[in-house]
C-alpha cells in the first residue's frame, strides 16, 4: 500500500486511506439507495406485500417455522437466527414493490441458509461474538501499543482487527448466496421478467455495499500492517 511522508504532521498514507474509504463508502451507499428507490416505485406483478412473498418462499424452501415481523426504519431489514424471524422494514413488509419483494426474499434466503446449515453462514455466526469483542478493544490496544512503544501490543491489535476483516470476507458468500436464492425463487414463482430484472438490480447493488465494506476493511488492515512494518 502507498507509503508517504507527513502532511501537517499527519501520515499522508493515512489521509489517503481516509479519502479512499470515504469515497468507496459514499459511492456504494448512493448506488444502493438510488437503485432501491427506483424499484420501490415499481409495483411487483405479484400484487402482494413483500412479507407475503417471503412467507411463500420460506414455506416452499422448507423453512416454514421462520416468523416474520415489521420493524421501524428504512433498509433495516434482517434475519435474526436467534429468534428465527425475518425483521422487515415497513416498506418491504407491507408494500408490494419490486424492491420490497426482492429485499424480503433476500432475508428469506438467509433463513433458508440457516435451516439448511449453509457452511459460510455457520462460520459467520460463530465469528460474531469474537468480532464483537475484537472490534471493541482493538483500537485501545493499538493506541496503548503506540503510546507505550510496545510492539507486541500493536501486533495484538492488528490480529484483533484481522477478525473483523475475516468477518467481512466471510459475509460476502453469505450475502451473495442469499441474493441468488431470492432471485431464483422470484424467477420460478411466476413473477414477471421485469420483477426478476428489478430484483437482480436491487440485490446486486446491495451486494456491492458488502464488497465495499470488505474492501475498506482490507485496505485498513494493509495500512496497519504497513505502519507496523515501518515502525
Q: What is the radius of gyration?
A: 21 Å
The parts where pLDDT drops under 50 for at least 5 residues are: none
Indicate the structural class.
mainly alpha
Largest beta-sheet characterization: 3 strands, mixed
DSSP summary, beta strand count: 5
Structure in a nutshell:
The chain is 73% helix and 7% strand. It has helices at residues 12-40, 50-60, 90-94, 98-115, 119-148, 151-188, 193-230; strands spanning 6-7, 10-11, 67-71, 78-80, 85-89.
Can you walk through the features of this model?
- The chain is mostly helical.
- The chain contains seven helices and five strands, in the order ββααβββααααα.
- The strands form two sheets. Strands 3-5-4 form a three-stranded mixed β-sheet.
- A hairpin with a 2-residue loop joins strand 1 and strand 2.
- Helix 2 runs parallel beside helix 4.
- The model has no long low-confidence stretch (mean pLDDT 91).
